[in-house]
Amino acid sequence: MARNDQSFGQRAADALTIASGSWPTFWAFTAVLFGYIIFNLIPFTRPEHFDPFPFEFLTLVLSLIANYQALIVMISQAGQARAQKRQEERDRIIQQQSYEMIMHQQHIMEGMVMLLEEYKENLVAASIADEEIQDTVDEILEKVNHERGNQ
Fold first, then answer.
1. Residue pLDDT, tens place only, 19-66
2. Degrees to nearest 5, angle at CA 26 with 48 and 36
3. Domain tally for the chain?
């Protein structure tokens, strides 16, 4: 799909899908999760942690991220499916036009073959006529030479 055909939301969904499916994003997300867990497990200066051990807030955030990411991936896939359908329709039209052009060219070629066969027949007829004329001329010359010889 051309970039101009997409809405801002589709372009953003595609960009997020591409970014979230990369190794750098995976490692960065893993580092953030481990950092969050370590920060909440080790008591620094205060005895109470922001999100203690069962990490309920982290679980909530991860669930929200997973839900939104799934929606974004589905939006991106739907856009790709629409683009693929448009491309298939363009390909079908091009294929149909190519078929029609080939059939037209085949019709023209058949006409040219017929004209060439007719031309060949005319040439053969002309050469036969030329041979007959040549035979007649030869007979006349023979008669003329025969009469000259008799004189």
1. 877 888 889 999 999 988 888 887 765 666 677 778 888 899 999 999
2. 5
3. 1
pTM, two decimals, is: 0.52
Per-residue pLDDT of 58-115, as tens digits, reads 899 999 999 988 888 888 888 889 989 999 999 999 999 999 999 999 999 888 888 8
Measured between alpha carbons, how far is 110 from 116 in angstroms, rounded to an integer?
Answer: 10
Structural domain of residue 7, as residue ranges? 3-117
Tell me, yes or no, whether 143 lies in a domain.
no
Q: What angle do CA 83, 86, 91 make, to 5 degrees?
A: 125
